[in-house]
Structures are given as structure tokens and as C-alpha cells.
Structure of Putative Se/S carrier protein-like domain-containing protein:
Amino acid sequence: MIRELIKLKNFCCLVFSSAQQALAAEHIVDTRALPALIIPTPRIITASCGLSLKCRLEDEATVTAVLRAEGIEPEACYICTEGQLPVLKWKGT
């Protein structure tokens, strides 16, 4: 699963306001065996702590719902597509 996530060219990037939140999110997805991977936030996305969760487009809603249920609110979600600028899908409240 990790190899598949690393190779993804089109993916969701969940960004966080702090490294502590990002690492807590990583722990949650790891313990729940959710298909997500912590990555450095792409440079073009500046509103972040520098760490993000990468997941498949089709898994974003599930990953986000689990994180929110655990008290982790991602700052925003970007759709990253190879050869294009990231597109903001939603921004947290």
C-alpha cells in the first residue's frame, strides 16, 4: 500500500496547521490501517506546517472523517494532479 501511495501522481493533500497535528494524524491513519502517508507539503502550498497527509482521491472523505472523529481538523485539502497547480478542494473552519 505504501509503495502505491508513494507513486501516486494524482492525489489529495491534507494540510495541517502544526507538525504536532500532522504527526497525530499519521498515528491515527497508521493504527486504523487507512491508506494515507505523511509527506512534505508540496512547496506550492504555503499555508501549512510543512507536513501533510497524502491519500487517494477516493479515500479523502473517509480519512478526513476519521481524523475529525478523533479531534484532528485538517487545515485544508488540495487536489494535486501531475503537471498542474494544486487546487483547493476545501478549507477548514
Q: What stands out?
A: The mean pLDDT is 92. The CA atoms of residues 1 and 26 lie 15 Å apart. The longest strand covers residues 10-15.
